[in-house]
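Quick one: Histidine-specific methyltransferase SAM-dependent domain-containing protein from Lepidopterella palustris CBS 459.81, structure tokens please.
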Amino acid sequence: MSNGTRDAEKGVNSRCFLWFGSSITNMDPEEVISFLRSLFSDHMQHVDDKILIGIDLCGDVDKIKASYGENFPIREQFMRNAIRNTGEILGGDARCILDGNAEHWEYVARWDSASRRHMRFVRSKRDGTVVVHIRQGEHILLGYSYKWTKKQVEDMVSASGLRIMRTWTEAGNDSSLYLLKKSLL
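--- reply ---
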């Protein structure tokens, strides 16, 4: 196994970074561009270095809502576990307010069509204080997931100083794998 460093006798070893999970869609487009630029400038400096990355593309809003929706039991379980763990991590008063009281929170899911992202929140069902005052009905952002078009992905890749070498898209056009490499300018 090579660490990717130069070996005088064998030449230069290129690297391929694999990122299948589509978690890049949890970043804003500007963050994606910055991340890809820094990945290639700081860690993948050989001309043949590549990244194979999975990206969600789903444009079917009903399908997205069904996958992340409020009636999806695993999402509710995830949220309750996050509340309990937050209480454990913060300790003290936060533990008293949060731990064992996950029922005082509810999961909320929203599709933001303007930014093409799905957002997930927890909403307090009652007044309480956890480091800051939380009002009944207030939302706390858990995360979001962008669902970009192929054109948006192409634009971000280009703005990162990279180019798409190859694309594999699954039959439903919900996600793709992109093989990216530095642009030769």
